[in-house]
Amino acid sequence: MKPSKRKLQIWLIEDNIVLPQQMPDGSLNKNYVHNHVFRASVNDPYGTPVTVAKAASETKQFDYTLAEKYKPENMSVVAVSQRCRWRSASHQKKNPIINLSVI
Known about the structure:
Blueprint: E1 4-14, E2 17-22, E3 28-34, E4 37-41, E5 48-52, E6 75-82, E7 99-102
Antiparallel strand pairs: 1-4, 1-5, 1-6, 2-3, 6-7
């Protein structure tokens, strides 16, 4: 297998956020529980370069200080590895997600 150049994005998401939500029927649920709310991009929003090769490993370390308003017990990490082919806006297309892990 030929090594593949990818971009790795690391995001923080939060669950169990109780806030009002307008429902599809138009009613207001004042105690709606929001889950999977994007809170931060831990690394560069465009991703950190990584190389993926069969039977190889690569280690990356990212440090992030969590804002006090977030509850650590409700936080999760999402890691996305994707092939990136940047094009001008007139030629852009969606790139498939190659690997998605929630820890």
